[in-house]
Amino acid sequence: MTLLSSAPGGAPVRRPDPPSPSPAAPVRRKQGGVVLAVPALVWYLVFMVGPLVAIFVIAALHWPGMLQPVSFAGSGNVRAVLDDPVFWDAVENTAVQLVVALPLMIVCAYMLGYYVAQKPPGHRVLRYLLFIPGLISTPAKAMVFYAVLSPDGLLNGGLEKVGLGSLTDAWLASPSTALYCLIVLDVWSGIGFTAVLFAARLGSVPDEIGEAAQLDGAGHWRAMWRIHFPVIRDFVGVVTMLQFLWTLFGSAQNVLLLTQGGPGSSSTTLSFLVYQKAFIAADLGYSQTVGVVLFLVGLAGLLTIRRVFRQNY
Question: Is-above-0.90 flag for pTM?
Answer without folding.
Answer: no
